[in-house]
């Protein structure tokens, strides 16, 4: 039960439908779409499109998208992988010839073919109800007529001035007057509005062929990219079978690799070997979560890649044997010092959306440009901000995730879904790049181990082990006594430079016919219901 004397927020509660996003305009759009006769899929796509306009540092149509969908309240969860591939001509030799040890962020080489629009249009065609043009109309209005800058959006925007200044189109669109827009100022993206109109009228072809694709390819080629019109025309995501695990009587569903959702399941499998007792934020419990994450992330960095291009041992990762082995390696007396080093980037920007409609269709959708404002590169006529997901590749020969032609990188963005007893229980997600797998496990444990409500679980202090040995980044809200005890055990507690991650979730109460939702207090968003 919430302590009403603390400056937090209550969970949202409603009967008919609900949406939870990281921006108020997106949440309201989702509800309006459902009131207009749309279903949860229409609402989720509409909300995501709005966020591409009003929260451009976090997401965009030049990014990737993953979705889990539970139709009509069932536990028959559908998964869609909307992550893009490298250009057909891009090889590891291309990087070696240029003496590059990593993929540069603000470069054409970091741009895989964006998969978001493929995902939106395919899922809308298969599961939506309203015309696509109607679904995208709110986002078009925001981009064309303007939107007011919200506080978290301004904060993130102002930190990328140097990046945006380096690209003429990005500077023109995103730095009017040579600076990031201030809170309450109105910003417009007319080129984006035009591209969204074309997509609304032409569907997938409005992005992957014709003038928009020509604009992106010409721009990337001018920067030395190897992208072709054929790369765009043949780009396609696909439906995949979710991976699952059982946790405390619930089934947790994630998208399979190339995403890291399977690692969230591995962490849950490790946590299931420990009794949940006492304070959910006690040093013992946090110690277990930290070590479970470090061990699971070591497995991720060794094994995860595009399963079409590498052998990913899914069964081994989800096996009881591996969970038993890793759980046995956790010593509550001290931090482990013999883990493999990590080489994944840390915090990234993403938007995550939960929607449940009157028919109990449940959508868990995540859309990202990876870093804040992605590459910071914007195609000049279409206004498409391009992501930098190619930075997730390894350039180490022989590594499963090594860059190669027509290959998808290891992906950090992961939607989640929970089912129980033949019915959907909860769409959920946690943003934050590298943090997401830990964030999924942390949220699920707090709900099902400790009986917390969604908003309480979201608001708890967060921490995350970094790539530097036993260093753990922690938010300032972590109690000093807890930090001191973890330090005594050998962890190095460092202050996080930014709030860690973000989350949304909607839980279905089948007995009462109601919905309960929460939205990230570290962002601008909100959960609201009808």
Tell me briefly what this model is.
With 530 residues, the chain is α+β, with helices and mostly antiparallel strands. The protein has helices at 24-35, 40-54, 92-97, 116-127, 132-145, 151-158, 161-165, 168-174, 190-202, 205-208, 210-222, 229-233, 261-271, 283-303, 314-317, 320-328, 436-448, 454-459, 480-488, and strands at 12-14, 18-21, 64-70, 78-82, 147-148, 186-187, 238-240, 243-247, 250-254, 349-356, 362-370, 377-378, 385-386, 415-420, 423-431, 463-465, 471-474, 492-495, 502-509, 514-519, 526-529.
Task: Tell me what you see in this structure.
With 530 residues, the chain is an alpha+beta fold. 35% of the residues lie in helices and 19% in strands. It is built from 19 helices and 21 strands. The protein has a seven-stranded antiparallel beta sheet. A seven-stranded antiparallel beta sheet has the order 7-4-3-11-10-2-21, covered by helices on one side. β14 and β15 (423-431) form a beta hairpin. The longest helix is centred in the middle third of the chain and has 21 residues, at 283-303. The two termini are 23 Å apart.
Spatial order of strands in the largest sheet: 1-20-19-15-14-9-8
- Low-confidence residue ranges: 340-347
Q: What percent strand?
A: 15-25%
Q: How many strand units?
A: 21
Number of helices: 19
Largest sheet: 7 strands, antiparallel
Mean pLDDT: 95
Helix content: 25-40%
User: How far apart lie the N and C ends?
Assistant: 23 Å
Identify the overall geometry: globular
Structural class: alpha+beta
Please give the radius of gyration in angstroms: 22 Å
């Amino acid at each position: 039960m919430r302590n009403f004397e603390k400056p937090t927020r209550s969970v949202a509660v409603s009967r008919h439908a609900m949406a939870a996003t990281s921006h108020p305009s997106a949440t309201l759009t989702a509800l309006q779409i459902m009131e207009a006769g749309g279903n949860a899929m229409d609402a989720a796509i509409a909300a995501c499109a709005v966020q591409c306009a009003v929260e451009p540092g976090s997401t965009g149509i030049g990014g990737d998208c993953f979705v889990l969908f539970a139709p009509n309240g069932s536990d028959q969860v559908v998964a869609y992988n909307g992550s893009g591939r490298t250009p057909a001509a891009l090889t590891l030799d291309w990087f070696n010839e240029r003496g590059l040890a990593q993929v540069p962020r603000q470069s054409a080489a970091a741009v895989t073919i964006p998969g978001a629009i493929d995902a939106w249009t395919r899922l809308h065609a298969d599961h939506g109800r309203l015309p696509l043009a109607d679904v995208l109309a709110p986002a078009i209005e925001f981009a064309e007529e303007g939107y007011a800058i919200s506080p978290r959006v301004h904060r993130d925007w102002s930190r990328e001035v140097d990046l945006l200044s380096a690209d003429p189109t990005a500077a023109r669109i995103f730095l009017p007057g040579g600076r990031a827009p201030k809170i309450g100022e109105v910003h417009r993206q007319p080129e984006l509005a035009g591209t969204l109109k074309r997509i609304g009228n032409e569907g997938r072809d409005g992005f992957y062929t014709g003038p928009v694709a020509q604009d992106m390819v010409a721009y990337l080629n001018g920067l030395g990219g190897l992208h072709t019109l054929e790369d765009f025309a043949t780009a396609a995501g696909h439906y995949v079978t979710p991976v699952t695990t059982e946790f405390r009587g619930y089934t947790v569903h994630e998208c399979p690799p190339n995403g890291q959702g399977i690692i969230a399941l591995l962490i849950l499998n490790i946590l299931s070997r420990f009794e949940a007792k006492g304070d959910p934020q006690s040093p013992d419990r946090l110690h277990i979560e930290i070590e479970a994450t470090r061990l699971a992330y070591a497995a991720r960095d060794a094994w995860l890649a595009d399963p079409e291009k590498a052998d990913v041992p899914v069964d081994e990762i989800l096996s009881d044997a591996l969970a038993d082995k890793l759980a046995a390696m956790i010593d509550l007396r001290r931090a482990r010092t013999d883990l493999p080093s990590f080489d994944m980037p840390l915090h990234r920007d993403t938007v995550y959306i939960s929607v449940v409609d009157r028919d109990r269709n449940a959508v868990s959708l995540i859309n990202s440009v990876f870093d804040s404002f992605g590459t910071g590169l914007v195609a000049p006529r279409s206004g498409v901000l391009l992501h930098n997901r190619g930075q997730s590749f390894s350039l180490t020969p022989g590594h499963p995730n090594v860059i190669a032609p027509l290959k998808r990188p290891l992906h950090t963005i992961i939607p989640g879904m929970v089912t129980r007893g033949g019915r959907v229980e909860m769409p959920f997600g946690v943003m934050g790049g590298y943090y997401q797998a830990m964030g999924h496990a942390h949220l699920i444990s707090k709900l099902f181990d400790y009986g917390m409500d969604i908003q309480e679980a979201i608001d708890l202090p967060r921490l995350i082990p970094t790539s530097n040995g036993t260093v753990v980044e922690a938010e300032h809200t972590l109690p000093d006594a807890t930090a001191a005890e973890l330090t005594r055990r050998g962890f190095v507690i460092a202050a996080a430079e930014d709030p860690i991650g973000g989350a949304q979730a909607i839980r279905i109460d089948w007995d009462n016919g109601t919905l309960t939702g929460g939205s990230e207090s570290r962002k601008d968003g909100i959960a609201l219901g009808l």
